[in-house]
Amino acid sequence: MTPARPLQRLGAFGLDLLLVLFVLGAGNWLLWLLGRGGVENGLDHAFSNPAAPLILTAALVLTILLFWLRLQATPGALLIGIRLVDGQGRPPGARQCLLRLLAYIPALAVALLGILWMLWDRERRGWQDILSGTRLVQEDEATRSLASLLREAGA
């Protein structure tokens, strides 16, 4: 298995970030329309709810976990041609995916050292990969196509 290159990982992250920003923008636009349609202070009310950031964060976390579990990649990774596998090249389990997501906390917290670690690691793994026993590999080494992954996911 050929490890995903750092620029591939960065590209996938950038595409995922654009998707998240688009969804948030569309949601804001919808709330704005609802506010103009007669709902008194609809937009202000939606953002004054202290639970809103928690709900958005939980939705994002669940979405990432579901993409990793069902398709072995986020939308950006699928477009770039990389996927998430365990140490043997198989799809990771729920425990590994959750551990990988939680491992981003120390990887990001120490001045991004855990993320940048892939620049020095022989297998191009960040701390989140090392701690969870996962890795991102290039799709050219994958045994399944996007079409087969979508079929398996029931899409």
Automatic annotation (TrEMBL):
Residues 4-133 form the RDD domain. One of its GO terms (cellular component) is plasma membrane. Keywords: Cell membrane, Membrane, Transmembrane, Transmembrane helix. It is found in: Cell membrane. It comes from the Bacteria. Its main location: membrane. InterPro entries: Pra-immunoreactive, RDD. The chain crosses the membrane at residues 12-31, 51-69, 98-120. It is a multi-pass membrane protein. It holds the Pfam family RDD. This is Membrane protein.
